[in-house]
Design brief:
The structure is a single chain. With 576 residues, the protein is mostly beta strands. Helices cover 14% and strands 37% of the residues. Strands 27, 28, 29, 30, 31, 34, 35, 36 and 37 form a nine-stranded antiparallel beta sheet that branches.
Length: 576
């Protein structure tokens, strides 16, 4: 189409030139009907605009231009005016056009000049690129509004980087040799326009990372993010296995991503992920020590941790075991110092990121329910009478109470389905009985040692992150308001809380998300249980050093940290 327009333009200009020559040889009276224009040269700034040309001498005239209509030049004829409108010029070069006014006996040429925009060069919308310490090639897209530019030569000392332009100068190819030092190195690529303007791209190549801090997943985790993180810092994936399940052995298989680093101090980094865990379970690495006395490399690594926001936990740390916790990213670090080096483990945790509605008041069963606990006057018969009057029935998994296997005359456990259906009402209640005399208190044999409530919605107290379980902040606040203090988590993930109810007894509350075949058809449900522990208060002078240490630890507000799985101690008498 452009070829046809140019040919038409040349043909018209030729004809008009011949016509003009003939008109110059005509008598003077032939000037009648000749066109005149108010301006033969128009100039525009690069931001565009419009100007009018007044045409006189003839009412019969037309126009033609050597720029296709609407490309950047728009012409509008109206009686004796021609409006010339120019679009903004984004290019770094001026542009021109010629307009010819065609009359019946002559023609007039008008030149149009629009100034250039400021020359611009960008490198993929960035002014800095970071390369790994490995030998690497990188392609950079050049975006510019001018074709008249060139690359300045790199200084002679930058012998590790080579830069070439390709694809009509729209692409830069960067090639860097490996950096074997611990220090990063930089170079600046300069692109220069014909009028002397310079545009810079800074290239930084990382040095060998001597001390390795694993990828920190934060609130979310994707394996691809971890892999990209390690690739970008030059670590090489040596082995990878997705988490899964071995059907032959009937056991889960951990996922593993093992990397070889460039560090001669920490050459290996391994990520382990358990099946069903949204984040990796642990990232583990080693430090090789040249000096087993000073452990200089381990000391330097601990300084690096502190510089990156990790705080030493004095309560958990010992001479050869150092524990760190980073609150911003909620990562727990443990350093086990051994002969020849140290083993370092990073364990990410799960912060609560949304609200979880909880109970309007702490669930303690119907009226009189807690009075059945640890009451010498309440045995199995009293429990059965209580639940029968409440309209409960034996749960469908059993026809009666479970007897003690060592002594069939003793009751061990009984469970009832309730007739309650509300979201905050227990659907089942269970009782555990003393099958042995209490060592400190007489008369409790066959009394209720423990009571347990089950609810259909586990999120009333527990939030689930994969197979991980954490007490919600809302339920913890409810426990705190009722006088309970955090007392640790068992290996199976049950959380324990306690409060003193008398000089001799503390009451223990435990909470968990569980699946039982006899509870809500094995659906995930909420378990809240209570039992009493005999712990007579003693005078401070009579307390052992260990007891004092535990009491001191309990003074800290560790409920939030505990709910994240960062456990400072475990319950001393876990559930039977």
């Amino acid at each position: 189409m452009k070829t046809k327009q140019v040919l038409l333009w040349l043909t018209m200009v030729g004809l008009l030139t011949l016509s003009g020559c003939e008109s110059d040889n005509t008598p003077d009276d032939s000037t009648v009907g000749n066109v005149s224009v108010s301006n033969t040269a128009l100039t525009f700034a690069n931001d565009g605009g419009s100007q009018d040309i007044t045409v006189t001498g003839s009412k019969e005239w037309t126009y033609i231009a050597n720029v296709p209509e609407g490309q950047w030049l728009t012409l509008t004829q109206s009686e004796d005016k021609l409006t010339v409108k120019v679009a903004p010029n984004q290019l770094g070069a001026q542009r021109t056009a010629t307009i010819v006014i065609i009359g019946s006996k002559n023609n007039k040429k008008i030149s149009v000049i629009q100034s250039a925009a400021e020359a611009k060069i960008s490198f993929g919308n960035t002014d800095e690129i970071t390369l790994t310490n490995k030998e690497e090639s990188r392609m950079v897209t050049v975006e510019t509004n001018t074709q008249s530019w060139s690359l300045e030569p790199l200084p002679a000392e930058v012998d590790w980087l080579r830069v070439t332009a390709s694809g009509d100068n729209h692409i830069l190819i960067l090639k860097a040799t490996a950096n074997h030092s611990y220090e990063a190195r930089t170079a600046t690529i300069i692109a220069k326009t014909e009028n002397g303007e310079q545009f810079a791209l800074k290239v930084t190549q990382k040095g060998v990372e001597k001390y390795i801090i694993p990828y920190v997943p934060g609130e979310t985790y994707r394996t691809i993010d971890m892999m990209n993180f390690e690739r970008e810092r030059g670590n090489i994936l040596q082995a990878y296995q997705q988490p899964g399940y071995d059907t032959l052995r009937d056991e889960p298989i951990n996922g593993i991503a093992q990397y070889i680093t460039s560090s001669d101090v920490m050459p290996v980094l391994v990520y382990v992920q358990e099946m069903g865990d949204p984040k990796y379970t642990v990232a583990q690495t080693l430090i090789y020590e040249k000096d087993n006395v000073s452990h200089a490399e381990t000391e330097a690594y601990m300084e690096l941790l502190e510089a990156n926001g990790y705080e030493l936990d004095e309560d958990l740390s010992q001479d050869l075991v150092k524990s760190y916790f980073r609150k911003d990213d909620l990562v727990f670090v443990q350093i086990n110092i051994t002969e020849g080096g140290s083993v370092i483990s990073f364990k990410p945790t799960y912060p609560q990121t949304k609200d979880y509605p909880t109970f309007s008041k702490l669930p303690e069963g119907p009226k009189g329910f807690m009075d059945l606990l640890n009451n010498p006057a309440v045995k199995y018969k009293e429990v059965l009478d209580y639940e029968t009057k409440a309209g409960s029935t034996f749960n469908k998994a059993g026809q009666g109470p479970v007897m003690d296997k060592d002594n069939p005359d003793l009751y061990r456990f009984v469970s009832f389905e309730t007739n309650l259906t509300g979201a905050q009402e227990e659907g089942m209640r269970s009782y555990f009985f003393y099958t042995k005399d209490h060592p400190q208190v007489s008369g409790l044999l066959q009394s209720v040692a423990e009571v347990c409530l089950y609810f259909r919605n586990p999120s009333l107290a527990i939030r689930l992150e994969g197979k991980n379980k954490f007490v919600t902040y809302e339920f913890e606040d409810l426990l705190t308001a009722n006088g309970y203090k955090y007392d640790g988590r068992s290996d199976r993930g049950t959380y324990f809380y306690w409060k003193r109810v008398s000089p001799e007894w503390i009451q223990v509350l435990y909470v968990d998300a569980v699946r039982f075949t006899d509870v809500f058809d094995n659906a995930q449900s909420l378990e809240i249980g209570y039992y009493m522990q005999y712990e007579k208060e003693a005078a401070p002078a009579a307390q052992s050093e260990a007891a004092l240490a535990i009491r001191q630890a309990k003074k800290g507000d560790y409920s939030r940290i505990g709910s994240l799985g960062y456990n400072r101690y475990s319950h001393r008498a876990p559930r039977r």
